[in-house]
Write a structure and sequence with these properties.
2 domains; six-stranded parallel sheet; Rossmann fold
Length: about 450
């Protein structure tokens, strides 16, 4: 089977590469000619462990190719995945201009039956809009061509996307009415997973569209919930990690996403919670739990800034802060909505000098934060620092040479926003230690 994936961002590139690994012939399409040329040279524009090997292997085998020619890719493919960006607008709604542009390109280009699958995270009803756009273009051409629409939301975690695609918790397929043909075609694409007994959820298209928002909003709420508890723990002398363990051992709750810290970031949780809240308001409802999780997340970043200032005896002006970790999570170079960016901005506004290190996100952070001092490694970042701040829990930050760090720093102080160190051990090394919720 031949498929086209329109959009070579995070979702599109991972989706196309992994389908080609299944033996499917995949054409990845993007309007950015420079990006396509880089991909054809084997240059991967995102940091995702294992993706470069899969791309190289399948390009060599002829199963994966890249092009800017949308019309040709559509013509050669039975299934077309839409995986373009759906950025958040200023009011929290989802900007669907790229989705609509692709839909119109499909309407202008299709000559035979196609299954058009929305992979991007979109509000409920987007597939209806895609149908309207395609049909308008077909009517303008004066032709009648049957096509099917489906929603197949992605549930990929940055840093673990390959495993998530190859060994997913579930595959959600939403189709219109009784469109058994489209359902059968999409299930055939996923046949290797079906044979491995991956759970498949077959539903209507609106339910599939809503399922991604439901999942991400719930996980974001878990993060905000444990961060609320961390504040209570600090007030009463409790230990949020012990509480998280108590909660996580309850099988009805589960232990994942119960890690207190600087709050959630990335390309999904912030955008999806805002979009879910906006969508609910448009329907006349108040998605109160999600609204609260957004407010808590914003407040948590301010609390982290206060922790650093407190470690500096209440005055950040003229002090040097070492920030370890810039990406929103480990194993990615993605700084979109990363807590580190807001924290650094807040410290700079208070007059601090910030020097930072991250294994993957240095270039992006340097562009986003003029005035940030980028360092070649952890210990350069710690040199002459008045406080060490761990914002992202990269593995290489978990076993620092504390004796060397103490010798390099102006003052031995640590603000551990991810609680990766034992407070007593750090204190025994002569450091002032401040964690989260303990």
């Amino acid at each position: 089977m031949n498929i086209a994936v329109i959009g070579t961002g995070y979702v599109g590139l991972v989706t196309g590469a992994c389908f080609s690994e299944f033996g499917v012939h995949v054409t990845c399409v993007d309007r950015d000619e420079d990006k396509i040329e880089r991909l054809e040279r084997g240059e991967i524009p995102i940091y995702e462990p294992g993706l470069d090997d899969i791309v190289a292997r399948n390009v060599k085998s002829g199963r994966l190719s890249f092009t800017i020619d949308t019309v040709e890719a559509i013509d050669q493919s039975l299934v077309i995945f839409i995986a373009v960006g759906t950025p958040a607008a200023a009011d929290g709604s989802t900007d669907l201009r790229y989705i609509e542009t692709v839909a119109r390109e499909i309407g202008k280009g299709i000559e035979s039956y196609k299954v058009i699958v929305t992979k991007s995270t979109v509000p409920v009803g987007t597939s209806d809009r895609v149908r309207v756009c395609i049909q308008e273009e077909l009517d303008a051409r004066g032709v009648s061509i049957r096509f099917s629409l489906a929603s197949n939301p992605e549930f990929l975690r940055e840093g673990a996307a390959i495993g998530d695609f190859m060994r997913p918790d579930r595959v959600v397929i939403g189709t219109e009415g009784d469109d058994d043909q489209a359902l059968a075609i999409i299930k055939d694409l996923y046949r290797p997973l079906y044979l491995n007994e991956t759970p498949f959820v077959e539903t209507n298209i609106h339910t599939a569209e809503l399922s991604k928002y439901a999942s991400n909003a719930f996980l974001a709420t878990k993060v905000s919930f444990i961060n609320e508890l961390s504040m209570l723990c600090e007030s009463v002398g409790g230990d949020v990690q012990a509480i998280a363990r108590v909660m996580g051992l309850d099988r009805r709750i589960g232990k994942k996403f119960l890690h207190a810290g600087p709050g959630f970031g990335g390309s999904c949780f912030p955008k999806d919670t805002q979009s879910a809240a906006f969508f609910a308001r448009e329907l006349g409802h108040e998605f109160e739990i999600v609204e609260a999780s957004i407010r808590v997340n914003e407040r948590q970043r301010l609390r982290m800034i206060d922790k650093v200032v407190s470690a500096l005896d209440g005055e950040a002006e003229g002090k040097t802060v070492a920030v370890l970790g810039l990406s929103f999570k480990p194993e990615t170079d993605d700084i979109r909505e990363a807590p580190a960016l807001d924290i650094i901005r807040g410290l700079m506004e208070r007059g601090a000098r910030v020097q930072a290190y991250d294994p993957a996100a240095m270039a992006a952070a340097g562009e986003a934060l003029p005035g940030l001092i980028l360092c070649k490694d952890v210990y350069e970042a710690l040199t002459n620092a008045d406080v060490m701040t761990i914002v992202t829990e990269w593995n290489e930050f978990r076993m620092l040479d504390l004796a060397r760090a103490k010798e390099l720093m102006a003052e031995p102080r640590m603000v551990d926003m991810r609680n990766i160190y034992d407070a007593e051990r750090i204190a025994a090394e002569g450091f002032l230690y401040i964690g989260v919720g303990r």
